[in-house]
Amino acid sequence: MNNGWFVIYALGCICAVVVMTVNVAVAWVIGWVTHANTVNRNLKKLQPPDTTPWVVRAGTFIGIAVFAVLETALLSWISVALGVWRFIRVILELFRNLFASVPEAVRTLRFPLRTNPHLSRESVWAYVCALGTLVGQPVTQPNDLLLGFDEVVEHYPNFDSRLALRQLQSLRVIDPSVIADALALLNRQANIRSFGEDLDAWL
């Protein structure tokens, strides 16, 4: 009798690992089909760079993977039930997103982010800013645009703020006068910095 329960438990462990593997594979396929992987790759261009050594990252990934497999297997049939529920939820979410009504303007701006993994950092910023404006975060002041540069410039000094604003201007989402004022402020700040550097050199 005990052996029978053990066999049932062992089968549950095996099924749990299989279900988990299927869910991981399905998530990867969905990410590839919906271009979510490309979107994430582009968005990372605006995020602080990951300075963690690759050895630490690899070790962390392996540790999490091993822990996930062991936890899934030990829970046996409970993990199977949870895994099946996750699978159903992911599929339902996929269909909900596929059939969701999206304005054509938003769809147009999303397209490059979803299909071109080689977008420049400036282009990604412009598309993200334009999308934010369309979905309810209007930009009416030039300083609002300049504040959006701060964190990016801090981590990526080569980020071309003027180019990013010109890219944003070409998308025709934000009032051109606001972008023009932002460009003028950038030029004024650059002139002040240049004057300060020349003065320091002269002194």
Identify the notable features of this structure and list them briefly.
about 200 residues; about 0% strand; mainly alpha; 10 helices
Structure explained in plain terms:
This protein has 203 residues and is mainly α. It folds into 2 domains: 2-98, no CATH class; 104-202, no CATH class. Helix content is 79%, strand content 0%. The chain has helices at 2-33, 36-43, 54-75, 77-98, 104-115, 121-134, 142-147, 150-155, 161-171, 176-202. α9 runs antiparallel to α10. The longest helix is centred in the N-terminal third of the chain and has 32 residues, at 2-33. The radius of gyration is 25 Å and the shape is elongated.
How would you briefly describe this protein structure?
This protein has ten helices and no strands. The protein is mostly helical. Helix 1 (2-33) packs parallel to helix 4 and helix 5 (104-115) packs antiparallel against helix 6 (121-134).
- Note the main sheet: none
Q: State which percent range the strand residues make up.
A: under 5%
Cα distance spanning the termini: 92 Å
Number of domains: 2
Structural class: mainly alpha
| H/E element sequence | HHHHHHHHHH
Number of helices: 10
Helix content: over 70%
Number of strands: 0
Instruction: Write down the Rg.
Output: 25 Å
The stretches of 5 or more residues where confidence is low (pLDDT under 50) are none
Mean pLDDT: 83
How do the strands and helices of this protein lay out in sequence?
Blueprint (H helix, E strand, L loop, with lengths): L1 H32 L2 H8 L10 H22 L1 H22 L5 H12 L5 H14 L7 H6 L2 H6 L5 H11 L4 H27 L1
